[in-house]
Design goal:
Length: about 140
């Protein structure tokens, strides 16, 4: 059980650091694009900036799901990559259909994937609220 806690905590930390790194990249990308797009008009630039922010966030979540899937395979929970990705995605999003269940020796580790998803989605939501809050007043001004 303690091994599951340690490895789950390590994986959670790695994924959250990756997510924060992607958000930092997103900030830099948005700043750069904003300077280049401002002259193209407020509606187009807002659409492109928001789309870019969302695309980077979706990519970050996808990378994390893949990392969890690879770790489930490495720990012997699944042998089929498709099943591992499916389980990782369902767990990460906390959807949890229940059609696949981990063995007891890895069940606690698997729960960390859902904690990762909750925290990452929270960070993503806060980030998008901040981006919307920054863009909309500037781009909706008369």
């Amino acid at each position: 059980m303690s091994g599951q806690m340690v490895w789950g905590t390590v994986m959670l930390g790695i994924c959250l650091l990756l997510h924060i790194g992607f958000l930092i990249i997103d900030i830099r990308l948005l700043k750069s694009l904003n300077r280049k797009l401002w002259a193209s008009g407020p509606l187009l630039s807002t659409a492109i900036l928001l789309s870019t922010a969302i695309i980077v966030i979706v990519f970050s979540h996808s990378v994390q799901v893949w990392l969890w899937a690879v770790s489930f395979i490495a720990f012997g929970a699944f042998t089929d990559p498709g099943t591992a990705v499916y389980f990782a995605l369902v767990t990460y999003t906390t959807l949890g259909y229940g059609d696949l269940v981990l063995a007891e020796n890895i069940r606690l580790y698997g729960a960390f994937a859902s904690v990762n998803g909750v925290l990452s989605f929270g960070l993503s939501t806060a980030f998008l609220v901040a981006v919307f809050g920054k863009l909309l007043p500037n781009h909706l001004a008369d």
